[in-house]
Amino acid sequence: MIDIGLSKMALIGAVALVVIGPEKLPRVARTVGTLLGKAQRYVADVKAEVNRSMELDELRKMKDSVESAARDVEHSIRNEAGNFERDWNQATSELDAIGGGQASAPGLDLPDIVPTYRNPGKNWRLKRGATPRWYKAQAGVRTHVQSGAARVARFRPRKSH
């Protein structure tokens, strides 16, 4: 940028004072300052617009790369799903051919496709390993939740009248 020192500014001010005159100099200085401010704001706006357009271009490139990666993933998933479906159909057709449409063929040791239900023989709603209350009371284990204020009030000595 232009290198203007204090001595150059003083020289420009003296020339302006002689050329313009002392009565018009403050108004001209205000006008020049206003114009310089507008020019600086305009340059800042242009820079911001250029930066925004550059960021927008980068975002578009990133969006395109993400979309292409998503298409590649979708394509590979569809291929794998098709391979799995083909293998599944082949395996089930071989089982149907071996079993003749039955769940298990006589003479062949094939596992059942659908296992039968077996009752576990226990009541899962009961908690069998619970510690007895008398033991908790003897050991001083807290069984009920109490706030700090309630606990203090509970153990506060009673007033005697």
TrEMBL record:
Q: Where in the cell is it found?
A: Cell membrane; Membrane
Q: Which cellular component terms (GO) are annotated to the entry?
A: TAT protein transport complex
* One Gene Ontology MF term: protein transmembrane transporter activity
* InterPro entries associated with the record: TatA/B/E, TatB
Q: Which UniProt keywords apply?
A: Cell inner membrane, Cell membrane, Membrane, Protein transport, Translocation, Transmembrane, Transmembrane helix, Transport
Q: Does the keyword Cell membrane apply?
A: yes
Pfam families on file:
TatA_B_E
Q: Which GO terms describe its biological process?
A: protein transport by the Tat complex
Bilayer disposition of the protein: Single-pass membrane protein
* Oligomer status and interactors: The Tat system comprises two distinct complexes: a TatABC complex, containing multiple copies of TatA, TatB and TatC subunits, and a separate TatA complex, containing only TatA subunits. Substrates initially bind to the TatABC complex, which probably triggers association of the separate TatA complex to form the active translocon.
Q: What does this protein do?
A: Part of the twin-arginine translocation (Tat) system that transports large folded proteins containing a characteristic twin-arginine motif in their signal peptide across membranes. Together with TatC, TatB is part of a receptor directly interacting with Tat signal peptides. TatB may form an oligomeric binding site that transiently accommodates folded Tat precursor proteins before their translocation.
Family annotation (NCBIfam families): tatB
Q: Which family does it belong to?
A: Belongs to the TatB family.
Name the UniProt record assigns to this protein? Sec-independent protein translocase protein TatB
- What organism is this sequence from? Oryzisolibacter propanilivorax
Gene name, per UniProt, is tatB
